[in-house]
Structure formats: structure tokens, C-alpha cells
Amino acid sequence: MTIRVLLADDQAMIRASLRIILEDQPDITVVAEACDGVEAIEQARETDPDVCLVDVQMPRFDGIDVARALADAPTRVVMVTTFDLDEYVYGALRGGAVGFVLKDAGPSLLVEAVRAAYAGDALISPSITLRLLRHLADRGGRARARPPAQPLSARETEIVRAVARGRTNQEIADELFLSLSTVKGYVSGILVKLGVRSRVEIAAWAWESRMMGAG
């Protein structure tokens, strides 16, 4: 199947560059573009893309506003930005974005982020991940994770920790000698128990719950 993508960035040259990179892939097509957050939301609702690549800083509504507005829609939001400041990353992921990629991360990582989002995984640029997770852990008492609706099993706890380390479903399956469908089933159950919408929120919950230790 073809992955349908919406591009939202206030710079036309950036949108053109992203379009060239993505449409060079046989399984990706750009179905719409937007130059600000309001237009991004309108275009997303009109064209129903699989993935929205959204810049954090845009006129009218910013990328975090877009992620929040589309949080309940099937569309998955990935942030693509030149800024890797912690407040942007944390706000975007808490707003419902499923990935965060820097514009200078390279074409292959951008394409990987789109495919990961489409597959239900999440991808964050490696240069961001460690800082983000430390930020979540360092918040300590300021951000108390809500306990799960039902206790996590030993296997679910194992998978939560793997998700928090940035592992994809396939990597978790390989590491734990499980089928991919089994891992997906576990992740779906974990989402329900934790009352969250995305893998990134599973990771945030794990770090805020101090399941990941000190480092």
C-alpha cells in the first residue's frame, strides 16, 4: 500500500525538499501541503493522510497545536524541525505526535520515520532520544505517572522497558523470541492498561514511573 503524507512547513523550499525525498520512495506519496498550522489541520481533515510531517514553529497554529488537534484522528503526526529544544520535543510528544525528526537528520531517517509512524511504531532522532528520556526521568516528583488501570504482567513490563529504549516491534520480537503479531498484541494491551495513545507515551510513562533506573 502507498503511504499518503501531508507536509506542513511555512517555508516552500523545505516543503519542496521533503516532497522530493519522500516521493523518491515507491511506497510514499505526498497528497497535500500546508504553510501553517491552521491549513495543516484543514488539509488533514480534508485529505485524510496516513502521516503528517509537521514543523514545530509555524504561523497561526504551531506543530504542537496541530498534533493536539489531530490526536483523535487516524492520521499520525511526526514533527520535522530544525529545533531540538527539550520543551518542543516534550510538548510535541505529549500533544500526540508519534515521532520527532530533525531536518538535518538525513533523508533515510526521514523516510524511516514516515514508515515507522505508518506501521504504528515511533521514531525519534537519535540525537534527541537520550536527552528526552533523561528529561523525563529528572522531572521526578513534578511528573507522577498515573498507575495502570490493571497491573502489568512480567512480559508486559519487559515490553514497556523495550519500548522506552526506543525498540521497534520487530526488534522487540527478535530480542524476546516472539512473533511480531504477539508483540503488537502486547503493545495494544499496554496502551489500554496505561490509558495512553502511542508508543511514545508508553516510553514517557516508563521513565516517569522510574522503571528505567538512573541512566
How would you portray this structure in words?
- The chain has 215 residues and is an alpha/beta fold.
- Helix content is 51%, strand content 13%.
- It contains 10 helices and 6 strands; from the N terminus they run βαβαβαβαβαβααααα.
- It has a 6-stranded parallel beta sheet, sandwiched between helices.
- Helix 3 links the parallel strand 3 and strand 4.
- Helix 2 runs parallel beside helix 3 and helix 7 crosses helix 9.
- It is globular, with a radius of gyration of 17 Å.
- The protein starts with a strand and ends in a 7-residue tail after the last helix.
- The mean pLDDT is 82.
Please describe the topology of this protein.
Elements: E1 3-8, H1 12-23, E2 28-34, H2 37-47, E3 51-54, H3 63-69, E4 76-81, H4 86-95, E5 99-102, H5 107-119, E6 123-124, H6 126-138, H7 154-164, H8 169-176, H9 180-194, H10 199-208
Parallel strand pairs: 1-2, 1-3, 3-4, 4-5, 5-6
Helix pairs in contact: 2-3, 3-4, 6-10, 7-9, 7-10, 8-9
